[in-house]
Amino acid sequence: MSTQAQTTNLTETTLTPDLTYARLASDAQLERAAHALKLNGFNVLVAENAADAKAKLAEVIPAGAEVFTSSSTTFIQLGLFAEIDREGGRYDSVRVKLGKMDPKTQNREMQKLGATPDYIVGSVHAVTETGSLLIASATGSQLAPYAASAAHVVWIVGTQKIVPNMDDAFNRLEQYTFPLEDQRAQKAYGVHSSISKVLIYNKEFVPGRATLIFVKENLGF
User: Fold this and answer.
1) Cα 34 from Cα 38, distance rounded (Å)
2) pLDDT tens track of the chain, all 221 residues?
3) Among 51, 61, 162, 168, which lies 20 to 30 A Cα-Cα from 8?
4) Are 68 and 150 a contacting pair, CB within 8 Å?
5) 3-state class (DSSP) for residue 201
6) What are the domain boundaries of the chain?
7) Which of 218, 177, 206, 166 is nearest to 13 (CA)?
8) Which residues contact 113 (CB under 8 A, 6 or more apart)?
9) What is the pLDDT of residues 1-49, one digit of tens each?
10) Cα(131)–Cα(160) distance, rounded to whole angstroms?
């Protein structure tokens, strides 16, 4: 059975996360990944730490822009939800708009609003040294705007997520990311997570659309 087939069958886990996937990438690995990503149409920035990453994010997204924050442990650690998703703040927050809508009567409008923002910000689960991204989701809500429907995409990614190739990316997802996310979901919501939908992002064809900010710190899963 292929790695991808195995992944789609995972629904819960008692696995201990493989902590080898928590190690920060070397400068050489980071350089290879950044170079390959640029060749594949991604903008790449490198931040030395969390504060630098937040400053670079502010440079990438202009004040007043419409921004949707995707669910992200990285963003929780950086405190970016509180900064972006507040009324009267620097940005036009989609989540603020969604908070004023009624899911019972406006669910379809809410789905469209979340799917087509000017900017969506979040993170990924693995980046290969060959310039590809792997993103998994239980619901898939962030995958459409990441892939095509958002005008711009910005990811903030700790360099521990850099792996040699796509096989290693799936191994990282299954053996490290998923066990941690499953534990988080049980604590937060009382339910197991699942790797229900997976996006493999090999290339961006729209110039300037997709930006990845690497951070030389262990952020997120």
Assistant:
1) 6
2) 234 434 444 444 457 899 999 999 999 999 999 999 999 999 999 999 999 999 999 999 999 999 999 989 999 999 999 999 998 899 999 999 999 999 999 999 999 999 999 999 999 999 999 999 999 998 999 999 999 999 999 999 999 999 999 999 999 999 999 999 999 888 888 888 889 999 999 999 999 999 999 999 999 99
3) 162
4) yes
5) strand
6) 3-215
7) 177
8) 94, 97, 98, 101
9) 234 434 444 444 457 899 999 999 999 999 999 999 999 999 999 999 9
10) 15
pLDDT of residue 185: 83
**CATH for 3-215?**
3.40.50.10420
**Predicted pLDDT of residue 184:** 83
Burial class (CB in 10 A: 0-12, 13-18, 19+), 195: buried
Q: How far apart are CA 5 and CA 210, in angstroms?
A: 28
Q: Which helix or strand (DSSP H or E) is residue 44 part of?
A: strand 43-47
pLDDT for 164-176, tens place per residue? Answer: 999 999 999 999 9
Separation of alpha carbons 95 and 93, rounded Å = 5
User: Which residue in the block uniquely carries the two structure tokens 């969604």?
Assistant: 98
Measuring CA to CA, how many Å separate 179 from each of 99, 120, 137, 151, 169?
A: 30, 26, 13, 32, 15
Cα angle for residues 212, 195, 186 (degrees, 5° grid): 100
Phi, psi of 159 (to 5 degrees): -70, -5
